């Protein structure tokens, strides 16, 4: 399916072409456009995902706003990702359909560059490739070219995360990338009726290392810890649903299988209940409380 309709393509041809400045100083104009799009990206995050972003931005080493504002060494696919989301935000705020159509063109360019990066063994597992995949996946979620097409992006992001391994997302840039998309990975698993890979021991076991890194940098946050503990439990939910459907549909399900699944579900409920209680008590996490929640969340 085309990224734009014939009517939209006709509208796009009406966008003013290169100005005198663009003809004489293309580099300068490109930099100005890039700055505008990156600011638009920050405005997009503020408008669409403020709760998610600010729940982790003060804890990570490299938050998205710093990446957008100061990182000028990003790969070309990631550049187009920033531009597409920034231009989409500008178009929506200004009520400018031409900017929205232009953002679709930018998205298409970013997607082509991303495909090239994924096909290259030297770049498929880099931070820039994963970052570009996340930006373009979010664009597809917000301005879909096809129904549920963002699920294909999410599956691709899952594959890249698998390839990189859990350890690369316990701290640093990788931690930022994971936190910005992990909720959608759980949503995708629910939509496909399968377990989310983030429920595995490999990924859950990185939490102590992550919390130790935050403590070492003086960025430890009680609310952030609770959210991470809670997420370990939430990540198991798609798997619980998939296993339940399998057991219900099977005529050979044993009592041991039912009891094992119920025990796992109850354990997860205990973790989430413990998190809720500590949150209700005003985030006054004692060392004993933290250790208990960590023990429960890691199974």
Structural overview:
- The protein has 299 residues and is mainly α.
- It folds into two domains: 29-170, no CATH class; 193-294.
- It contains 16 helices and no strands.
- It has helices at residues 6-12, 20-24, 26-48, 50-56, 64-70, 76-94, 97-119, 127-142, 150-164, 172-192, 201-204, 207-216, 222-234, 237-249, 255-280, 287-297.
- It is globular, with a radius of gyration of 22 Å.
- Mean pLDDT is 84; it is low at 1-26 and 290-294.
Describe the secondary-structure layout:
Blueprint: H1 6-12, H2 20-24, H3 26-48, H4 50-56, H5 64-70, H6 76-94, H7 97-119, H8 127-142, H9 150-164, H10 172-192, H11 201-204, H12 207-216, H13 222-234, H14 237-249, H15 255-280, H16 287-297
InterPro entries: Osmoadaptation_assoc
Keywords:
2 domains; globular; mainly alpha; 299 residues; 0% strand; 74% helix
Radius of gyration using CA atoms only = 22 Å
Mean pLDDT over the full residue set: 84
- Which stretches are poorly predicted, pLDDT < 50 over at least 5 residues? 1-26, 290-294
Element-level helix/strand string: HHHHHHHHHHHHHHHH
State which percent range the strand residues make up: under 5%
Backbone shape: globular
Quickly give the structural class.
mainly alpha
Oligomer: single chain
Number of contiguous helices: 16
Q: Strand tally, please?
A: 0
Helicity, as a percent range: over 70%
Largest sheet: none
Number of domains: 2
Determine the N-to-C terminus distance: 45 Å
Short description:
With 299 residues, this protein is mostly helical. 74% of the residues lie in helices and 0% in strands.
């Amino acid at each position: 399916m085309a990224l734009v309709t014939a009517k939209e393509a006709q509208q796009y041809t009406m966008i003013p072409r290169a100005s005198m400045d663009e003809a004489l100083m293309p580099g300068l104009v490109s930099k100005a456009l890039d700055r505008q799009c990156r600011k638009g990206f920050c405005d997009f995050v503020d408008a669409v995902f403020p709760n998610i972003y600010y729940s982790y931005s003060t804890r990570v080493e490299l938050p998205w706003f710093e990446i957008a504002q100061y990182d000028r060494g990003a790969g070309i696919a990631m550049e187009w990702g920033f531009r597409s989301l920034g231009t989409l935000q500008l178009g929506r705020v200004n009520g400018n359909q031409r900017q929205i159509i232009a953002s679709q063109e930018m998205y298409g360019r970013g997607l082509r560059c991303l495909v090239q990066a994924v096909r290259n063994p030297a770049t498929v597992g880099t931070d820039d490739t994963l970052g570009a995949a996340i930006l373009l996946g979010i664009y597809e979620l917000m301005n879909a070219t096809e129904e549920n097409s963002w699920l294909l992006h999410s599956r691709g992001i899952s594959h890249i995360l698998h390839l990189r391994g859990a350890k690369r997302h316990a701290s640093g840039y990788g931690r930022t990338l994971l936190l910005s998309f992990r909720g959608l990975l759980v949503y995708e698993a629910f939509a496909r009726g399968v377990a989310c890979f983030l429920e595995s021991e490999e990924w859950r076991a990185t939490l102590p290392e992550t919390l130790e890194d935050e403590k070492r940098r003086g960025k430890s946050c009680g609310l952030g810890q609770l959210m991470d503990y809670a997420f370990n439990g939430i990540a198991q939910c798609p798997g619980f649903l998939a296993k339940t459907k399998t057991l219900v549909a099977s005529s050979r399900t044993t009592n041991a299988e039912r009891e094992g699944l119920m025990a796992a579900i109850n354990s997860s409920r205990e973790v989430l209940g413990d998190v809720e209680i500590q949150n209700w008590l005003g985030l006054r996490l004692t060392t004993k409380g933290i250790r208990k929640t960590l023990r429960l969340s890691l199974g």
